[in-house]
């Protein structure tokens, strides 16, 4: 087992900068050595806060450099394919932020490439940043449902609200590909099954979204075993970060993300925006701080041990395939089947929907 993993972070916008702070300050057995961003001023400024960390404008230089053992990718989704494949070619473990890529075909190319690495070396190198699997509340919910005492899981009801979105180009499609994709992974994680169809409904939008943006959206997933998942995604709620999940099973229901769960309080307009006996988290960095820490620590530990953990390339592909169907449904309003390759046609067996250890 290596003593310390030397990590490079690619893309240092909102999420990348957050990962830089945790790698530099809170993650054991990791050494942050380099950051890369085409915005070289941003990269240099961030690196200047950390002794011994260098910056570059060239992501591929960082990925292939000898001083980097493993890579965190927090660049935009449309460059993930090139950068993940570069990590695989260099033999470097990569924690790639969600979404794995922007369409099914490119995600499948990554699955195939990672399977080839696994066949040659005995371990895959890609972990996808679906951090909710590491959130203590989601992990507990998964273990309660998988434990079987409540019988079969019948329904999930998900709510996912952002106060606003920082990017003015955050269009209707990004609500499916960037936001709803978390609910896709939650559904797969909690049911332990694939999503087989998706329908995206478009309510009359809030006047506070950018012109032409359909926000909120309601998406319905049908699971392979017949379960149904309802999802509200609302990225201009004006309040704060609200992520809730209620599971309905044969002999009971479980809800996480409510004030009574103790983690934080939710928002009710009657007591004033953003308050109801407590404070609504501002955004995902606050709500999921522990989940990100556990995710990155588990990844570093797996890199040191030469193993793998958490959401796989297959999980990233399966989620992207649902997003791809979701985009078609957003356009048509119809229920659209999810087109997923048979995992048995791939070189190794799929290891989807595994609980993080
Ligand atoms: N897991 C989560 O909860 C979560 C939260 C936020 C964002 N994300 C994901 O993290 C990624 C980044 O999102 P963000 O909100 O930080 O975006 P952002 O726009 O704030 O930052 C993106 C950064 O990437 C840089 N960049 C652009 N092209 C690049 C390239 N070719 N190589 C390297 N860097 C490049 C940009 O200059 C910018 O600094 C996305 O995949 C997003 O979906 C995940
Ligand atoms: O990229 C972000 C991120 O994934 C957040 O977790 C989600 O709440 C946002 O809606 C999305 O835009």
Protein traits:
single chain, 357 residues, alpha/beta, 2 domains, six-stranded parallel sheet, globular, disordered C terminus, binds nicotinamide-adenine-dinucleotide, binds 1,2,3,4,5,6-hexahydroxy-cyclohexane
Question: Would you kindly provide a brief summary of this structure?
Answer:
The chain is of the alpha/beta class. It contains ten helices and 13 strands.
Question: Can you walk through the features of this model?
Answer:
- This protein has 357 residues and is α/β, with parallel strands linked by helices.
- The protein has two domains: 5-131 and 291-311, NAD(P)-binding Rossmann-like Domain (Rossmann fold, 3-Layer(aba) Sandwich), CATH 3.40.50.720; 133-287, Dihydrodipicolinate Reductase, domain 2, CATH 3.30.360.10.
- Helix content is 36%, strand content 20%.
- The strands form two sheets. Strands 12-11-7-10-9-8-13 form a seven-stranded mixed β-sheet, with helices on one face. Strands 3-2-1-4-5-6 form a six-stranded parallel β-sheet, with helices on both faces.
- Strand 4 (70-73), helix 4 and strand 5 form a beta-alpha-beta unit.
- Helix 4 (80-89) packs parallel to helix 5.
- 1,2,3,4,5,6-hexahydroxy-cyclohexane (INS) binds next to helix 7.
């Amino acid at each position: 087992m290596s003593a310390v993993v030397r990590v490079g972070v690619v893309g240092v916008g909102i999420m990348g900068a957050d990962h830089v702070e945790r790698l530099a300050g809170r993650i054991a057995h990791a050494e942050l050595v380099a950051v890369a961003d085409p915005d070289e001023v941003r990269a240099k400024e961030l690196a200047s806060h950390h002794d011994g960390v260098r910056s570059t404008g060239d992501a591929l230089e960082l990925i292939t450099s000898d001083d980097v053992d493993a890579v965190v990718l927090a660049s935009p989704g449309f460059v993930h394919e090139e950068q993940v494949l570069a990590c695989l070619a260099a033999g470097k473990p990569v924690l790639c932020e969600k979404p794995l890529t922007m369409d099914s075909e490119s995600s499948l190319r990554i699955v195939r490439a990672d399977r080839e690495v696994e066949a040659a070396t005995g371990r895959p190198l890609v972990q996808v940043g679906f951090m909710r699997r590491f959130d203590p509340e989601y992990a507990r919910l998964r273990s309660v449902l998988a434990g079987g005492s409540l019988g079969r899981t019948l329904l999930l009801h998900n709510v996912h609200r952002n106060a606003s979105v920082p990017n003015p180009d955050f269009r209707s499609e990004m609500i499916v590909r960037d936001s709803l994709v978390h609910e896709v992974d939650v559904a797969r994680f909690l049911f332990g099954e694939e999503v087989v169809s998706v329908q995206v409904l478009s309510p009359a939008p809030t006047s506070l979204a950018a012109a032409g943006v359909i926000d909120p959206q309601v998406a319905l997933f049908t699971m392979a075993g017949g379960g149904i998942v309802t999802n509200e995604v609302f990225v201009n709620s004006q309040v704060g970060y609200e992520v809730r999940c209620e599971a309905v099973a044969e002999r009971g229901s479980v809800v996480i993300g409510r004030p009574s769960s103790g983690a934080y309080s939710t928002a009710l307009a009657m007591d004033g925006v953003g308050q109801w006996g407590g404070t609504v988290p501002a955004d995902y960095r606050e709500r999921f701080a522990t989940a990100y820490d556990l995710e990155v620590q588990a990844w570093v530990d797996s890199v040191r041990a030469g193993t793998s953990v958490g959401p796989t390339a297959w999980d990233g592909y399966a989620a992207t395939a649902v997003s791809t169907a979701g985009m078609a449904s957003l356009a048509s309003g119809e229920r659209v089947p999810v087109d997923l390759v048979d995992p048995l046609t791939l070189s190794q067996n799929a290891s989807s929907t595994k609980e993080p250890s």
